[in-house]
């Protein structure tokens, strides 16, 4: 671990412990709501921006945006386990439950209980964890399929994240035929946006169908996360991204953000696409770095058609637990400066936030509220968007 990364994590703990400082603000993605963020966006220089090619179109299928089903239950568990700084692997949630209850779980004991079952027998593994884990009925997961058409007409398929609950995600994969695509090796890579439970812990579901799929992760993954990738049966290439921008194919890059996140997680990656003759599209898991930080970095470091932000998809991390604060209204208003033509939001964007986007007349692509998604004001489970 580099000294820079060590310092960043130490600052996070110190800042969050005292309730002040960049660490505490960044942990919840709240920096984007502060006046400092607006000033930084306005004054940040645009240097030698990187040209990375273009693609013809991008289509996103929402496999699951419902990471959990009850906000109160999730936050209650986190608070009972010790608060926002507690190590996620010790909370006791499946698949790392050990039967000892809240705040008494451990990565080692939870993994040992299912090690011989993953990824081959996920039904048995999850059935056992429903007995050992805390609130096993609450996990769902976040994952989406990204289909990219290159300028020569070639179609590339990728997964962003692998969800949480083995049971929920396996059913969601089958509903959208992701299992068949993986088994046929039609999906070229899995991008894990960050190490959080609802994006990462369902990894065995992906590896059940293709254990050689290349996986991209942020360099901030802890030893438990890297060990879990191997224990889940991964036999393919693992790309640990340490540089700010990772090119995948012409017109597609992975952007690395070094940001401290709740429950001892560090770093998130987002995907960026240059749509020919349209502009930039950003696709994120949670956007813990904050929407202003995310777009400001892309604006200052990438070169894209028309010098325009065309669209966005995924979690925007604005009031994810529906705890609306007036300062969030400033952020909603500020989004107009990007002049997005399409906004595909869900997951940790929050239902209230989605409603406010619609009320302000933003170009939100609505959904169908199927498969336990909560509102048609955002793209729900099974819905699609095309850029």
TrEMBL record:
Q: Does the keyword Transmembrane helix apply?
A: yes
Q: Which residues form the Metallo-beta-lactamase domain?
A: 158-227
Keywords for the protein's UniProt record, in alphabetical order: Membrane, Transmembrane, Transmembrane helix
> What Gene Ontology molecular-function terms does this entry list?
transferase activity
Q: Which Pfam families match?
A: Lactamase_B
Its transmembrane ranges are: 12-33
Name assigned to this protein: Metallo-beta-lactamase domain-containing protein
Instruction: Tell me the organism.
Output: Rhodoplanes serenus
Its taxonomic path starts at: Bacteria, Pseudomonadati, Pseudomonadota, Alphaproteobacteria, Hyphomicrobiales
């Amino acid at each position: 671990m580099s000294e820079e990364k060590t310092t960043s994590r130490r600052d996070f703990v110190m800042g969050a412990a005292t309730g002040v400082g960049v660490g505490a603000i960044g942990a919840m993605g709240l920096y984007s709501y502060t006046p400092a963020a607006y000033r930084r966006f306005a004054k940040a220089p645009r240097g030698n921006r990187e040209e990375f090619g273009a693609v013809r179109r991008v289509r996103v299928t929402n496999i699951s945006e419902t990471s959990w089903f009850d906000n109160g239950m999730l936050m209650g568990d986190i608070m009972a386990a010790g608060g926002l700084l507690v190590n996620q692997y010790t909370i006791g949630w499946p698949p790392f439950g050990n039967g000892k209850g809240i705040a008494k779980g451990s990565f080692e004991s939870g993994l040992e209980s299912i090690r011989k079952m993953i990824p081959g027998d996920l039904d048995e593994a999850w059935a056992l964890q429903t007995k050992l884990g805390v609130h096993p009925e609450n996990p769902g997961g976040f994952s989406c399929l990204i289909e990219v058409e290159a300028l020569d007409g070639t179609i590339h398929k990728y997964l962003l994240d692998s969800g949480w609950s083995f049971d929920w995600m396996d059913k969601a994969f089958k509903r959208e035929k992701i299992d068949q695509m993986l088994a046929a090796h039609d999906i070229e890579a899995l991008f894990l946006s960050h190490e959080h439970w609802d994006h990462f812990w369902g990894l065995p579901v992906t590896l059940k169908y293709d254990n050689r799929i290349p996986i991209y992760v942020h360099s901030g993954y802890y030893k438990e996360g890297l060990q879990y990738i191997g224990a889940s049966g991964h036999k393919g290439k693992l790309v640990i991204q340490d540089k700010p921008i990772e090119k995948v194919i012409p017109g597609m890059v992975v952007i690395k953000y070094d940001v401290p996140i709740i429950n001892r997680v560090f770093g998130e990656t987002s995907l960026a696409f240059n749509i020919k003759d349209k502009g930039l599209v950003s696709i994120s898991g949670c956007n813990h770095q904050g929407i202003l930080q995310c777009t400001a970095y892309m604006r200052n470091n990438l070169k894209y058609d028309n010098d325009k932000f065309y669209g966005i998809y995924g979690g925007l991390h604005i009031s994810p637990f529906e705890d609306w604060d007036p300062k969030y209204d400033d952020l909603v208003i500020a989004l107009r400066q990007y002049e997005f033509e399409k906004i595909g939001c869900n997951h940790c964007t929050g239902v209230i936030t989605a409603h406010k986007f619609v009320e302000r007349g933003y170009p939100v692509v609505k959904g169908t509220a199927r498969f336990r998604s909560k509102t048609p004001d955002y793209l729900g489970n099974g819905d699609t968007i095309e850029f």
